[in-house]
Amino acid sequence: MSDTLRHGLFHQSLCRSTILEHHSKTNSQGIFIKALFPASPAKPGTVLLSKALIPTKYRENGLKVEKTNIIKGRRMVSVVPRAVLTTGPASELSRKFILDGNSELQIGISAPTQGPGFQIDIKVTNSSDSLILHWGGIPYGKKSWVLPSCRPNGTKLYKNRALRSPFSKSGSDSLLKIEINDPQIEAIEFLIVDEAQNKWFKDNGHNFHVQLVRSVKQSSVVSVPEDLVQIQAYLRWERKGKQLYTPEQEKEEYEAARAELLGEIVRGASVEEIRARLAKSDDKYETKESNVPESKSKIPDDLIQIQAFIRWEKAGKPNYSPDEQLKEFEEARQELLGELDKGTSLDEIRKKIVKGDIQTKVSKQLKKKSYFTAERIKRKEMDFMQLLNKFVTKSVKEKVSVPLERPTAVELFLNTKEEQDGGSILNKSVFKIGDKELRVTVTKRSGRTKIYLATDLKGPLTLHWALSKKAGEWVAPPRSSLPQGSVSLDKACETQFAKSYSGEPPCQVQSLDIEIDDENFSGMPFVLLSSGSWIKNNGSDFYIDFVGSKKDAGDGKGTAKALLDKIAAMESEAQKSFMHRFNIASDLLAWAKDAGELGLAGIFVWMRFMATRQLIWNKNYNVKPREISKAQDRLTDLLQNIYISYPQYREILRMILSTVGRGGEGDVGQRIRDEILLIQRNNDCKGGMMEEWHQKLHNNTSPDDVVICQALIDYITSDFDVKAYWKTLNSNGITKERLLSYDRGIHSEPNFRRDQKDGLLRDLEHYMRTLKAVHSGADLESAITKCLGYRDEGQDFMVGVQINPVPGLPSGFPELLRFVMDHVEDKNVEPLLEGLLEAREQLRPLLLKSRDRLKDLLFLDIALDSMVRTATERGYEELNNAGPEKIMYVITLVLENLTLSSDNNEDLVYCLKGWNQALRMSKSRDGHWALFAKSVLDRTRLALSSKAELYHQVLQPSAEYLGSLLGVDQRAVEIFTEEIIRAGSAATLSQLLNRLDPVLRKTANLGSWQIISPVETAGYVVVVDELLAVQNKSYGQPTILIAKSVKGEEEIPDGTVAVLTPDMPDVLSHVSVRARNSKVCFATCFDPSILSDLQAKEGKLLRLKPTSADVVYSEVKDGELLMASSTSMKEDGSSPSVTLVRKQFCGRYAISSEEFTSAMVGAKSRNIAYLKGKVPSWLGIPTSVALPFGVFEKVLSDSSNQAVAETLQFLKKRLAEGEFSALGEIRRAVLQLAVPPQLVQELKSKMQSSGMPWPGDEGEQRWDQAWMAIKKVWASKWNERAYFSTRKVKLDHDYLCMAVLVQEIINADYAFVIHTTNPSSGDSSEIYAEVVKGLGETLVGAYPGRALSFLCKKNDLNSPKLLGYPSKPIGLFIRRSIIFRSDSNGEDLEGYAGAGLYDSVPMDEEEKVVLDYSSDRLITDGKFRHSILSSIARAGSTIENLYGSSQDIEGVVRDGKIYVVQTRPQM
């Protein structure tokens, strides 16, 4: 028999720690065949072998069956019958069960009318009409169900796991007949389902189990010879490729062989016929001899185990299936046999592969019975709310870092020059010359370039200058460009500066103006000559660029400008060495801390420019490594102290630390110098590249040395392939030119001898730890070693180092860190990610308070954070074929990592809770899991977008300003914030979301589009960043806008025929309503590839054909567009003509709802008054009063407001002349209105008589708040959106009058908007609604995210269909208060969507609350959600019936009660 089968025996001991039982029942010469293919355990009705019948011998080469006379003689075997025998076809075996009340289950088993097998008759008495049998078959030796091929009529497949067969009705009983003709099935199991009642019937909580019996007719022989079963099992094994079987598989194979033979007998074959067939294979069965060399037996099991473990680790510790595990053992055996064949002895093999603690690792795996399975830690139960941080810094715009410094005389002088010039500024540069400055501005106007130079240097000053067309070139300027008094030289000229005075008090400034009329020149190189001395720019020529590549430093708005100016002034000193730079940073840190977030952002930007090699690291200065590490220690100690005292800045402080090395303790810095000398001496490599590197290290070590050391290690391990050396260097940004640029340049390539290999590898790997200890703050191994402690003995002149463990680490934490390091290179990254996150969670409490060696823990946490991103990206390949649950789980881990690293992380915490809820829903097979997960995904994207915007707001202005001052490469400046984001967990998380999104959309049947306004159209594609930026634009041809951002409150520009966006405005937002009213196609695209394709078609003419869930687009010709436009004009006519009637003051300042008429208030007020008393009691209507039309004009005409009236008159004149900036000034002027006493008296009277609270009862300040709110409503008549909207329809803005509807605010649990005709499809039989948590402003205003949305058929209001879960991160809540709603005569006009253009203002400011949907009953409680949504739908239907037309309704839910706050005709 094959050697592979013999391995099956061997591997049972290898894969499991237990020893096989058969070892005790056999001598050393053989084993029983029962161990290979054991029969099923004995039980009533089964064949039972008392012992194995065919003795076998186990040899080194496999399994040999001893000779028995299978052909000549017949060896009969006594057996216990497999089943109870019956005598006829009638059902002889019956069982009865009581199901429910008087309903009984009866089961009978008999032979079928034709052929072999069984017939099961199932009857349920006194049953309903909707019974289903949920069933499957049980094969011999197994517990899981199989699905028989012979099935009753009407049977359906259920999830590929069971069959569902319907009962037929006979009187009051239900009947079902099943036939089983598969000989391998020994039983059936089933449940009974009453579908009408959704009720399941079981047998005392378990499946009903029916064992099958055979009749005498079917079993003409009472036994199957066991020797035939054994031969059949062997033949099956050969047919399947001689697989390696586990004990369970061996049992299954043996029973399957028996079942096959029984099947043949059932089908009429005799035992003799079966024996004859099997005889043909007798020789093969008897004489299987192995050709495997005798040496195979010489390989000890423990070596095979270790070799297999080594192979598994090299492969990245994947999770192998049992079959793959056995193959791995065989591969390991073959590798070792190959070594033996080469003449290697077992002792030499053992010495080669048994290293370190590998035997311990292998024994651990065997002990855990988890061989070839990556071990996992058990994470502690965690409440995500414990991760919550609410450290919010002040708004960047509000934060004033330091008092602005007065402009210098030189700066004022050049500012004046710029104003006089009036041209576009190409370049502004500032050069520090000691404590003086030289400023240069380059402008361009009418094709002529002007250069203005000014400085506060004293004494005679000459400009030695030229022009250039390319870098490094000096070309003599043309004579036409020479200022008066210039002297021409060879390739240059000299011009004297002129003296003048600037500033107050006047200060001397020396200046010079140059004008160039040749556009071929790109720049101006120059130096200065003062009192016989040449002045250069840090040793190089000054250079001014004409092409505008260097961005104007600007005014430093949004930065700690004074600090950045100081940094720029100190940069020439900082360039000397890392010691100088770190010490300067330490000196400036107190200033930065006092400047707040922007000050620390400035330090980070500076350090980041350094870390990315945008600044000079070392310039003609020799510094000892210990001095660098000491300076690092000083800086990191100061950062650590700020971290404790100012928790609101912890995120930016972590970012600074990540750019700065840790620094050294115990003379680690000095060891950089000393250890390289020992490496050279111990390995006899004192010349060439190693000596050059030693000189570089001795002069000034830097983070480049970590890369160089790794490149040398890679060179050696690649068998001295110098390409590996350069690959490592180049992939880390170190070129040959950079090596040469060091003060002590590295000119040579490494060239080592083979006998140096082992010693150099050992010493360089050890040296890497020293280098990383100083330079690599985010290196995980170095950070762990630092925290757990280590000791390095000194050698000769090199001092020793002892780093003690950080005290107070949590119990088990060192073991957790070792687990992380053991799995840091695993291909299966989940266990590693779990370990990294668990380590960060356990670290977190230690990072929140002052303690000894806090910065070591901070560097460890930074390294763990970084490794999460690295590991996740390494695991992308494994996720390619992963299901959604696995991707969601990895998302939770990466999101948890981002949450741990963020200061103000409340939104991230609630996203994390949402993902865990989505996972629970998925595992429980909740039908809405994908829909809910999609909402969490959308919210997570919003959170990442907000984080990116915050980074850009805080960091980018400093990067641009400081980058300009320091001359940093413009591309590096432009992508500064983008690179920061891409380097963190947020970018990794974003990629995971992109992978999951299409899966969720497909599962939830969402498609790639949401159609908001389905209008077929054609137009030219224009791509814009924000719809807001172009809302007032007028396009001269039909335009399809692809807008990256649409918030919800924008106007749609004239000439726009479609707006397509990846953004997610609500279907009922203002912009959505206006799109439908204006017949503009409006849709959200969820598929980035489709969106990219549309953007790539910018400028092309496209036709759009929206369907219910898709937008089909195609390119068309101009002629087709002209035809379409002509048809459209005929259908739609020209722009709508809208007229207003000027309203007059009615003589009253306030009126009650009973007095509302069209002459006094708008439709909003009248509609709410109309509903009062007409709606059922379960539908609430808030009490209302109003300030009618004309009150604003009356107040404005009051003598107390004469000055305001005059101001408004002047501003409106400016506005009429097209000066639109006057709009904001008008609004501010309206807020200056004084209140007439009579208005106060009348409003108080009406509110109190209507039962509303009077704000003045709570004090004068409360009335002042109310009065300001009223004025803000009036002022909103002049907001930009409303003003330009009225201009588009040629509506006379002066005729627009504003009433104010006054209502008490209902402190809502939820707010909703209803459209009683589906706005997307126009289906009047459907109600569409959106619901948000809190006040409705987040629904109708420009708040990101989607509301909960649902549809409901009007003929079935109790069955709302959920369309989408909410993704809005913010809810608005307010104390008991009053709201003042705009109610103009310009709203709800026929043909004009004026609603929502004007403001409704609450007396009190709303509180913004970050929403936790995981605790919201509307999300988590299906019954509650059904009740609320049904009630909202009923409210919509009720109001529509009252008006007799489609309605646009706003309302709120409070304690389950529905309130309607306004309604209008649906446009």
Describe the structure.
With 1467 residues, the chain is an alpha+beta fold. The protein has 45 helices and 49 strands. It has a seven-stranded mixed β-sheet with strand order 29-33-32-31-30-34-35. Strands 37-49-48-40-41-42-43 form a seven-stranded mixed β-sheet. The model is unreliable at 1-92, 214-222, 283-297, 395-404 and 1123-1136 (pLDDT under 50).
Helix and strand topology:
Blueprint: H1 3-15, E1 56-59, E2 62-65, E3 85-86, E4 93-100, E5 103-110, E6 118-124, E7 131-139, E8 156-158, E9 162-166, E10 168-170, E11 173-180, E12 185-194, E13 199-201, E14 208-211, E15 214-215, H2 226-239, H3 247-266, H4 271-279, H5 282-286, H6 301-314, H7 322-341, H8 346-353, H9 358-368, H10 409-421, E16 424-433, E17 436-445, E18 448-455, E19 461-465, E20 487-489, E21 492-496, E22 498-502, E23 507-516, E24 523-530, E25 533-535, E26 542-545, H11 561-574, H12 578-594, H13 597-611, H14 625-645, H15 650-659, H16 668-682, H17 688-699, H18 704-717, H19 722-731, H20 736-741, H21 757-775, H22 780-788, E27 790-792, E28 801-803, H23 813-822, H24 830-843, H25 854-874, H26 876-879, H27 884-900, H28 906-923, H29 929-966, H30 970-974, H31 976-982, H32 985-1003, E29 1009-1013, E30 1017-1026, E31 1034-1045, E32 1054-1061, H33 1070-1077, E33 1081-1085, H34 1088-1096, E34 1101-1106, E35 1111-1115, H35 1118-1132, E36 1151-1152, H36 1163-1171, E37 1179-1180, E38 1184-1187, H37 1191-1197, H38 1202-1216, H39 1222-1230, H40 1237-1249, H41 1260-1275, H42 1280-1288, ...
Parallel strand pairs: 3-15, 30-31, 31-32, 32-33, 37-49
Antiparallel strand pairs: 1-2, 4-5, 5-6, 6-11, 7-9, 7-12, 8-9, 10-11, 12-13, 12-14, 16-17, 17-18, 18-23, 19-21, 19-24, 20-21, 22-23, 24-25, 24-26, 27-28, 29-33, 30-34, 34-35, 36-38, 38-39, 39-45, 40-41, 40-48, 41-42, 42-43, 44-47, 45-46, 48-49
Helix pairs in contact: 1-7, 2-3, 6-7, 11-12, 11-29, 12-13, 12-14, 13-15, 13-29, 14-15, 14-16, 16-17, 16-21, 18-19, 18-21, 22-25, 23-24, 24-25, 24-27, 25-27, 27-28, 27-32, 28-29, 29-31, 29-32, 38-39, 39-41
